[in-house]
Amino acid sequence: MKIVSNVNIDMPWQDKPEDCNMPMWRYSENPVIKRNPLPGVARIFNSAVAQYEDAFVAVFRAELVDGRPHIYLGHSNDGIKWDIDENPIKFVDENGEEYKPLYAYDPRLVKIEDEYFIIWCGDFYGASLGMAKTKDFKTFVRLENPFLPFNRNGVLFPRKFDGEYLLLSRPSDSGHTPFGDIFLSRSKDLTYWGKHRHVMGSGGNGWWQTLKIGGGPAPIETSEGWLLIYHGVTQTCNGYVYSIGSAILDLEDPAKVKYRCKNFVMTPEEWYEERGFVANVLFPCAALCDDDGRIAIYYGAADTYVGLAFTTIDEIIKYTIENSEVVGDQQDDGRM
Ligand code: BMA
User: Fold this and answer.
1) Neighbours of 328 (CB within 10 A)
2) How sure is the predictor about 334, in pLDDT bands with cuts at 50, 70 and 90?
3) Where are the alpha helices (DSSP H) in the chain?
4) Which H/E stretch holds residue 166?
5) What is the C-alpha separation between 212 and 180, in angstroms, rounded?
6) What tens digit of pLDDT does each residue of 81-96 get?
7) From the CB of 38, is ligand 1 less than 6 Å away?
8) Within the chain, what is the greatest distance between any pair of CA atoms?
9) Atom number in ligand 1 closest to CA 240
10) CA 281 – CA 307 distance, rounded (Å)
11) Are 50 and 116 spatial neighbours (Cβ–Cβ below 8 Å)?
12) Which of 2, 88, 135, 216 could link 229 by a cystine bridge, Cβ 3.0 to 4.6 Å?
């Protein structure tokens, strides 16, 4: 299996424990970011990591002591111990004027050619996608909002397709959204987005994802297709439960689902996933992968902590294919 890696330095890793019978396993020292990580910040979770030069950078969703989320920058040599800036990232607009999001959460961080893009959910008269780019992690240029409200879970593909950027998103409402499918949109200039396609819906036979789904880390390119790690939500009498799932999208046309795992690959089990500000939430936002096919996933746990989980490309692709059930995803006729 070939993989397009995004890391060429040592990255966090632990081999699969012998007693683990799932395709993804947790870091034994989780959570990697604990409560009250810096003055004025109560919790960090749902955050993204990437290699920058010979180390790692992170964009953290930091929930302040007034309850509002903002994005903070962090640096780390090993991807585990983090130096986190004391203040939120300062954005400028394309004219160099300061731009301060009212709030910003659930950032993804994606490198495309020599630029890094941060995509988050912010306020544009309701929950909407925000986007910024940087080359040096010093100047962050905020771009136009890609879509009208309401939308969440914006995830760029790590390369262009015939000169076009591809963005996954999940149209939503402005609250706790009891529905939601993943869509794909294209843009030549990161300003005007179109050629929208439906990728996959909630539901199917996997009961863990019946309510809504949303993209997670930037998809990983493999010879089998694009590995999409995402979150799926089910509703219980005690509230929503967020698990992690996997699918493989067509390499040339990622709006087509080749395989979709009917089982979750990870679901809340540990104390830091079941107990916190919002219990029972696993929210993956980033995946590091090296040339050996090792994958390290950063996920938010219970809207309170950052956790790390591992898999390998062979393991997760095999599990996804063996347990695949593509249900109701390819019914585009007369709808596009
Ligand atoms: C979603 C988002 C996530 C959060 C999740 C569970 O709607 O707001 O940031 O982790 O709810 O509370």
Assistant:
1) 11
2) confident
3) 271-274, 313-322
4) strand 165-171
5) 4
6) 999 999 999 999 999 9
7) no
8) 55
9) 6
10) 11
11) yes
12) 216
* Ligand 1 centroid – CA 16 distance (Å): 29
Among protein residues, the one with the nearest Cα to ligand 1's atom 7 is 176
DSSP secondary structure string for all residues of 202-250:
S-SS-GGGSSEEEE-SPPEEETTEEEEEEEEEEEETTEEEEEEEEEEE-
Centre of ligand 1 from the C-alpha of residue 106, in Å = 8
Considering only CA atoms, which of 167, 165, 142 is closest in space to residue 91? 142
Tally of CA atoms within 13 A in the half-sphere of 112 that contains its CB: 23
Question: Atom 4 (ligand 1): residue with closest C-alpha?
Answer: 303
Each residue's pLDDT tens digit, 9-67 = 999 999 999 999 999 999 999 999 999 999 999 999 999 999 999 999 999 999 999 99
Confidence category of residue 129, pLDDT binned at 50, 70, 90: very high
- Within 8 A by CB and 6+ apart from 151, the residues are 121, 127, 128, 129, 169, 170, 171, 172
- The secondary structure of residue 274, as a DSSP letter, is H
Output the CA torsion 154→155→157→163 (10° steps). 20
Atom of ligand 1 nearest to the CA of 176: 7
The alpha carbon of 149 and the centre of ligand 1 are apart by a number of angstroms equal to: 17
pLDDT for 1: 87
Give, using CA atoms, the residue closest to atom 9 of ligand 1. 106
Distance CA 23, CA 313 (A): 10
| Residue closest to 311 by CA, chosen among 336, 330, 292 | 292
Task: Check if 241 has its Cβ closer than 6 Å to any atom of ligand 1.
Answer: no
Is 278 a pocket residue for ligand 1 (Cβ < 6 Å)? yes
Residues near 28 by beta carbon (within 8 Å), at least 6 away in sequence: 14
The β-bridge partners of 104 are 122
